[in-house]
C-alpha cells in the first residue's frame, strides 16, 4: 500500500491529511477527510493518532479534538518513521508498552498491523497484534465462504476462522467487506450463525 502514497505538489487538487500525508486513500480504512480552520485530517487518522485525546465535543476544535493537540501530534509524527513504507509522518505507534514501531494508517494492512475501530482505538504492530487463539487448521482445498477462493493451509493475518464452529474460513478482506455492510446486531458467522464469539473475535482483528 505504501507504493500508492501520494506526494503533495503545488498542482495537487486534493489536500493531504496532515497525519498520514496521503491525499487519496481508502475511505473504508481512513474515513472521510475533515477540513477545518486550515487543518485537514482523515477521520480515523485522528482517532488512531498517538498522543491525541478525544473530548467527545466537550472542547471546541475538530470532531472533539483540540486544534493545538492536533498540531502537536503532527509535529511528533514528523519525527517518526513508518516501519512499513520507511517515510516520516507516522502518527500511530503500537500500543504495546515498550514498542516504538510507528506507522501510517493507510500502511496498516500492508504492514499486517491491527487497528481496532472501537474505543479506545488501539493499534498494534505486526509483532504485537492480537492473534486468534482458535486451534484449527483448514482442511485441504478449503475455500473462503465469501469469495470461494482457497484460504491456504493455516491461520494467518490474511486468513481467519470462526472461533465458534472452527469450520468457517474467510479471507480478512472478504469478512471485513461483509462487516462494513452489516449491522453489529446481525453480524454473524455465515456457516454456524454464531453472533457472540464470532463478532467479538472479528472486531478485535480489526473488523
Question: Overview of this structure, please?
Answer:
- The chain is an alpha+beta fold.
- It has two domains: 1-129, Zinc/RING finger domain, C3HC4 (zinc finger) (Herpes Virus-1), CATH 3.30.40.10; 131-207, Herpes Virus-1, CATH 3.30.40.
- Helices cover 18% and strands 11% of the residues.
- It has five helices and eight strands.
- It has helices at 27-30, 43-48, 67-77, 172-180, 196-203; strands spanning 33-36, 39-42, 92-93, 102-103, 114-115, 123-124, 159-161, 169-171.
- Strands 1-2 form a two-stranded antiparallel ribbon.
- The protein is elongated.
- It starts with 26 loop residues before the first helix and ends with a helix.
Q: Outline the low-pLDDT stretches.
A: 1-12
Please, what is the CATH homologous superfamily of the largest domain? Answer: Zinc/RING finger domain, C3HC4 (zinc finger)
**What is the number of E strands?**
8
| Termini gap | 19 Å
CATH architecture annotation name of the largest domain: 2-Layer Sandwich
Strand order of the largest sheet: 1-2
Radius of gyration: 18 Å
Shape: elongated
Question: How much of the polypeptide forms β-strand, as a percent range?
Answer: 5-15%
CATH fold label of the largest domain: Herpes Virus-1
Compile the SSE list and pairings:
Blueprint: H1 27-30, E1 33-36, E2 39-42, H2 43-48, H3 67-77, E3 92-93, E4 102-103, E5 114-115, E6 123-124, E7 159-161, E8 169-171, H4 172-180, H5 196-203
Antiparallel strand pairs: 1-2, 3-4, 5-6, 7-8
List keywords for this structure.
207 residues; alpha+beta; Herpes Virus-1; 2 domains; two-stranded antiparallel sheet; 5 helices; disordered N terminus
